């Protein structure tokens, strides 16, 4: 019995070992099969666009399977009544004047619903939405109008200046006009006795009425120039004007340019291309001006510039330059006063407002001369050409010759 039991136990051990061997082999086989299958499964799990033809076909098959198993339930028909109710609730919340509607409106709404059932008119949701928009727009317009009215009320109205506001007296009315306004300048002019100057008033102040219109002993001249050359810095004659002692114009001609004009200087000279295109010949103008000036007193402002452009000369004793007259310089406190400043301060007349006029400038210089004519001519007789005695020109001293050594020895020997 003991032998039988030992045999059976040994046989069972052998069977168990054989089963173990079989299981390990099977496991290996299964593992190898799994490794072969994993790359395909991994390819299935990879997200992204397909790269091979197999992936295209497999994806398409999977999509068809998913479509068959899961039918499209996303397209569920919504109830239009629910939509309308939700939209009506939103419009009621958005409208500012939400409240119970009167009975008259309910009857109108019932009529609209009946019309919609018949197929006529618009949906009630749309009409209510439009009505709410109109109400909102109306309320916004009202609020904007109210705000603008409030701003208008709050804006301070500009008060007109009075004489009490303009208590100062030492300010030029022209400066007040540019800074404050015309009304304030008029008040100052009225108080100080200054009159408004326009074209007619300036002509009355500079020209004497009912007087001799021909040549007189003294004549005033002024010229307008234009620029020539590359930068227009060089000047040539464009217009020449002359007036007699009473301010009457005796000569006024435009001159045809002798060179190509590069700068007309219209803002100052008032010359335009049409003015000088058919002008007088320069030599003819030069000859006529020289004939008028012969033996007469020439009055002007910085007259040397005009004579230079005309290529003429005139005796110094016969020239009266208002820019160099000493009393005018003291009055204006300037070494080289402009004609505009002298006319304003001495004559109380505005000239050279914008484009210049050679006739008006000549009239202003003549008026300045006639105002001080007696004193000026008296000073000229005393040898004071510009109201002041001219300094005598001193001759340069000759240097003393130094004595040489030979000369010194001869003096000692003597």
Automatic annotation (TrEMBL):
Its main location: nucleus. Keywords: Exonuclease, Hydrolase, Nuclease, Nucleus. GO terms for cellular component: nucleolus. It is found in: Nucleus. SUPFAM superfamilies: Ribonuclease H-like. Residues 1-169, 395-414 are annotated as: Disordered. Residues 51-60, 67-79, 94-113 have a biased composition (Polar residues). InterPro entries: REX4_DEDDh_dom (IPR037431), REXO1/3/4-like (IPR047021), Ribonucl_H (IPR013520), RNaseH-like_sf (IPR012337), RNaseH_sf (IPR036397). Residues 115-130, 147-163 have a biased composition (Basic and acidic residues). This is RNA exonuclease 4. It comes from Coilia grayii.
């Amino acid at each position: 019995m003991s032998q039988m039991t030992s045999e059976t136990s040994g046989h069972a051990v052998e069977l168990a070992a054989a089963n173990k061997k079989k299981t390990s082999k099977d496991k290996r086989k299964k593992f190898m099969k799994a490794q072969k299958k994993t790359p395909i499964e991994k390819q299935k799990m990879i997200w992204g666009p397909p790269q091979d033809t197999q992936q295209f076909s497999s994806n398409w098959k999977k999509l068809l399977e998913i479509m068959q198993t899961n039918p499209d339930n996303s397209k569920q028909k919504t109830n239009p009544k629910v939509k309308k109710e939700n939209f009506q609730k939103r419009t009621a919340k958005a409208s500012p004047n939400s409240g119970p509607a009167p009975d008259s409106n309910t009857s109108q709404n019932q009529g609209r619903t009946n019309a919609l059932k018949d197929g006529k008119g618009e949906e009630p949701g749309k009409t209510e939405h439009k009505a709410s928009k109109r109400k909102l727009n109306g309320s916004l317009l009202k609020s904007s109008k109210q705000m603008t009215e409030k701003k208008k009320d709050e804006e301070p109205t500009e008060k007109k200046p009075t004489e009490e506001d303009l208590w100062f007296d030492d300010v030029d009315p022209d400066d007040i006009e540019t800074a404050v306004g015309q009304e304030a300048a008029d008040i100052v002019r009225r108080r100080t006795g200054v009159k408004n100057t326009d074209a007619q008033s300036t002509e009355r102040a500079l020209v004497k009425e009912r007087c001799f219109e021909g040549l007189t002993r003294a004549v005033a001249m002024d010229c307008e120039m234009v620029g020539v050359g590359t930068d227009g810095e060089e000047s040539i004659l464009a217009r020449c004007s002359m007036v007699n002692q009473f301010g009457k114009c005796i000569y006024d001609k435009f001159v045809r340019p002798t060179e190509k004009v590069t700068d007309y200087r219209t803002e100052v000279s008032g010359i335009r291309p049409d003015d000088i295109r058919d002008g007088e010949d320069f030599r003819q103008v030069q000859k006529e001006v020289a004939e008028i000036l012969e033996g007469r007193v020439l009055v002007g402002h910085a007259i040397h510039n005009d004579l230079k452009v005309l290529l003429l000369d005139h005796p110094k004793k016969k020239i009266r330059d208002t820019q160099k007259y000493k009393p005018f310089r003291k009055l204006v406190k300037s070494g080289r006063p402009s004609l505009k400043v002298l006319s304003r301060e001495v004559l109380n007349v505005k000239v050279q407002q914008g484009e210049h006029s050679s006739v008006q400038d000549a009239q202003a210089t003549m008026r300045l001369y006639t105002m001080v004519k007696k004193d000026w001519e008296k000073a000229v007789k005393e040898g004071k050409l510009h109201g002041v005695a001219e300094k005598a020109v001193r001759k340069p001293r000759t240097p003393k010759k130094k004595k040489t050594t030979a000369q010194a020895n001869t003096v000692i020997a003597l």
